[in-house]
Design a protein that fits this description.
Length: 258
């Protein structure tokens, strides 16, 4: 563990959701460039919900080195990959079906294990171990970039307020069968994995999230799930939000620069 305290979060507000799409793509490309130059690959974890639609700025962009991407899901619903609730399906519809990414670089659930959530989450954890091959060395994987969303109820990934999984310190991937938001059966990254990433970006839009965003950013002591995302130094947390979501937030904004 680093002895340095976490960096302060950087909050950037854009006029509306559409205005986030291109800056987010530029941000992802910068992270990709740094990672590929350093290690020859780019490890990224994606959320579902409203996030996949925000990734469309990458479509048709010649600077994306799709063959260098290794994609994981921050959380996934225990459903077949072609089910309407699947985060993978949503990312496929908005992004992966439109770009030349090798299918082997997208790490999905083993759907033969949908009936056993423990097996399902263990198998997904093994995919991470295989990719990062450092469980003993560094203890937790260090993603180049993790993209998160936040529900109006203040959940992120599949980490819900008051749930016992908020206290998980050991496992990389956990499962739950009592998600308050349907569908109930899911697997999710745990905080140690999220908090060891080099960069974490929340993308949050819409006035229905304004109250919760202000709680999370202005009152972090309340310990709501997104407030527990504090990447270990030198990791950096960003919030890309629109003005509607940020309407009640006191936390200082930073102008977007790449
Ligand atoms: O259930 C989920 O919800 C969160 C937030 O979704 P949003 O539609 O409010 O952005 C999402 O980040 C997560 O991946 C998903 O499984």
């Amino acid at each position: 563990m680093s002895r340095q305290p976490p960096n302060a979060a950087i909050l950037v507000s854009f006029p509306n959701a559409d205005a986030i799409v291109d800056p987010l793509a530029s941000f992802i490309l910068k992270a990709q460039k740094e990672a590929v130059e350093k290690k020859g690959r780019f490890t990224i974890a994606l959320s579902g919900g409203s996030l996949p639609k925000m990734l469309t700025g990458l479509v048709g962009n010649p600077a994306v080195k799709w063959d260098k991407w290794q994609v994981f899901y921050v959380d996934e619903r225990a459903v077949p990959l072609d089910h309407a609730d699947s985060n993978h399906l949503s990312c496929t519809n908005y992004l992966f079906s439109k770009v030349p990414i090798p299918q082997d670089n997208i790490h999905t659930l083993d759907t033969t294990l949908l009936n056993d959530l423990e097996e399902l989450s263990d198998a997904y954890e093994k995919l991470l171990i295989r990719e990062f091959a450092q469980k003993d060395a560094a203890r937790f994987p260090v993603f180049d970039l993790i993209l998160l969303g936040m529900g109006p109820d203040g959940h992120t990934a599949s980490l819900f307020h008051g749930h016992e999984l908020l206290a998980e310190e050991d496992r990389w991937i956990a499962c739950l069968e009592d998600s308050p938001k349907p569908p109930p059966k899911r697997i999710t990254f745990t905080y140690p994995v999220i908090n060891h990433a080099a960069r974490v970006v929340f993308v949050v839009t819409g006035k229905e999230k304004a109250e919760m965003l202000s709680q999370v950013l202005d009152n972090p002591e309340a310990g709501l799930p997104p407030s527990r995302v504090k990447p270990v130094f030198p990791g950096q947390l960003y919030w890309f939000v629109d003005d509607a979501a940020a309407a009640a937030v006191q936390y200082a904004r930073t102008p977007f620069k790449i």
